[in-house]
Amino acid sequence: MKSKSTQNLTFGRKQPYHKPKAGQSGSAKAKTNAIQTRSLPSPSSSNAPSPSPPPLGLELARVTYADSFQEKYPNMEPRHDYELLQLGQHKREGTPTELRAWVDDQLQRDIKSMGTREAVFARATAVLDTIVGQMGRKPRPGRDVVHTRPIPGSKYSIRLWPGDPYANEYCMDFVDTATQEAVNSPFKFELWAVPDPDAPWLAMPSGRLYSLEHNFHIAQDKIPPGLEKWVLRDGQTCLLKRPGKKDVMFYVPVRRKPKTVHYDVELVEFPKEV
């Protein structure tokens, strides 16, 4: 993960790392690689009176890496930011002693490259203090905003949650309506992006939508249970087609953003609806 940050924290004491709530899996073997992370510069704190929470779909990289670390190594605690960054990226096999020996070896390599231990640690901290957007991670109970609606004539529901706002991405999966447990494709269906019925003349992208795992060429029977997901776009109109049943249409929510472009013009208003 490449990132930039305008914040630097004093390194030399253990940082508070988040642990997942009880009930979250600590196994990394049940994860696919169909998760992508984008990094964005974190806002400077020099002029801001207090930090504001990131927009929906964004979070501090430290939180992302801490969650990943605890999933991959539930019986370990990172000794410092550098170890959190190294082991939080990819699952490595080995005992805690072997893993830390590997981290120490990587640290010595980076010290030779950057000159000092302090410089390496400062860089790791800067990366962790970056705001990042993720695509494909399942929502975390009690921590992420989700929208769930039952599918008519089915015991399953469609679940939507915000993805990367800068790419206007929303994620979708299916859950058991009774248990709210995520499931992979629970029945035969096709998911399509279609024109908005209220404005069909607009040039909106249309076509069949496939799961993120399908797009990464992961076979359906190789997707771990409950991890299949789809990436949609804010404001998209979607059609769920099922053999022998009426089609289901739904609209993806739109996250309102502050206007970034301002025109020095006189505004003439016409009615938006007639």
UniProtKB/TrEMBL annotation:
Residues 1-10 have a biased composition (Polar residues). Residues 1-58 are annotated as: Disordered. Residues 39-49 have a biased composition (Low complexity). This is Uncharacterized protein.
